[in-house]
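Hello again, I could really use a second opinion on something today. I've dropped the whole record in just underneath, so have a look.
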Amino acid sequence: MPAPVPAPLPAPAPLPRPLLRIVLCDDERMVRTALRVILEAEADLEVVGEAATGAEAVPLVRSLAPDVVLMDVRMPEIDGIRATEQILATMAEPPRIVVVTTFENDAYVYDALRAGAAGFLLKRADPDELIGAVRLVARGDSLLFPAAVRSLAAAHTAGAPSAAAPWVARLTEREADVLRLMATGLSNHEMSERLGVGPQTVKTHVAAVLTKTGSRDRTQAVIAAYEGGFIMKKG
């Protein structure tokens, strides 16, 4: 009698995503409630705290050490810009901060990005955009809207000296290519395909660009590219 054929082993269950811990900072309770409902419908997202002012947000974020903070850019007592500056300046491993605004050409947004925010999100963003933004910044990417950053940079650097910043001359040719592509919002994978090099090589070039521009992340590097005269500003 032939030996029985063993039943195939069941496919391993997919590993669950680690929970991403989020703090919401907005002076409108209804906005915080809506954000919480959207985010906590996802199995990998957890809202661990809420703050109604920047003054509340700073100690709350320090104590909870979340992965991501959604920070309203305009709040009483301490606005989102100052709160972002204080959080990033006083935490050894600060969270990724996304500032939230009602319109993309908000002067506050530009200052928040300069302060170290990983990007910005419009309050009218749909749920999928919100969820995608949280996951994107949590993995270390920046939430860039190239057209908006270009417009904001043009407004904030109008009349500035045209001489390039000293760091511009220190970029290698490939680092310069990477910075130009960063300014168009491309991811490391997309830059790898565009330049015909491996992802690790792109990552190395991005790290060098951040160091030479004195930037915390890609968003600050792109702003430095405009302010430093590396990218020609257009109105």
Notes: The radius of gyration is 21 Å. The first helix runs from residue 29 to 40. The chain has a mean pLDDT of 86.
